[in-house]
User: Fold these one by one.
Assistant:
Number 1:
Amino acid sequence: MDIKTQVQKINPNIQARDIQELVRKTGSIYEAINIMSARANQLNDDIKAELHEKLEEFASHSDTIEEIQENKEQIEISKFYEKLPNSVIISINEFTNDQLEFRYRDEEAANE
């Protein structure tokens, strides 16, 4: 499932969160924030790459500034991506709904 369809049902507004619920998953609020932050960075990069890829499909390449025209498709795509929830809100939602898998680097090294 792509990110656009996944986040359609997420409320884009900031909501109060129960910190104790976040702490229960990791044992530390700092670890929880670090996990959600790393996921938000991943999402941000993915969304940005996807947006640029879609905009590039409709781009008209010209050498002069006078030839730049508004492209209706690009505007609609941009508006759609602007309405998506912030990547931090998406990562918090994934974390609280147990949709994120995380592991510690020390555990990875021990398993190898």
Number 2:
Amino acid sequence: MTESKGYQKLIVWQRAKELVVLVYKLTSKFPKSEMFGLRSQMTRAAVSVVSNIAEGYSRKSTKDKKRFLEMAIGSLFELESDIVISRELEFITLDDYEILDKKKGEVGYLLNKYFSAF
């Protein structure tokens, strides 16, 4: 059986978790009208990335592992679009946008490397 919480040792999971925390902190500043809109969408997408990495880690077959990593990659692209929209709507500052974009890029790079390992 896969070691419980072994996924937490993965650098990609750690960086994705950092991205989740960052998204939550920055979206907490969004207008209240966005609580169930873009804010909710962004937090769900970010959480989906880290959750799918963890779930993929637990899978036995390479096919299943890759399927969950593909979902994580898809959620990361979704988050990327939401970050761009948030900037255009001026819900986040240029500095916050650059911080999010850099962290998102780091997670994407690590996720693609991890995916390629299978």
Number 3:
Amino acid sequence: MLIDILKAVAVFAGLGIFLGVVIGICAKVLAVKEDPRYEVVLNMLPGYNCGACGHPGCAGLAGAIVAGEASPTLCKPGKQDMRIAIKDYMETTPGPDGEIVRIKL
């Protein structure tokens, strides 16, 4: 009986080690690389998360600006100096792929 318990413990320990290694490998291979400009643009926005821009909060608008799909002028509570700062930052900082986003104000 003790041998059966030890076999079960060994099987589960081996299975746990194997699955831990598989999860570790998958975490490295399937990792999503985030554009570092996203966090900077998000911090430049006012942070009201009002949704007046048509995006789900400031995080959604920041993602759209970094992707080149939106303009900071969509931010209704944002001031003009914020819009200019975002435009200057996006036009002078290349993304991970080396592309620069052009923004019209």
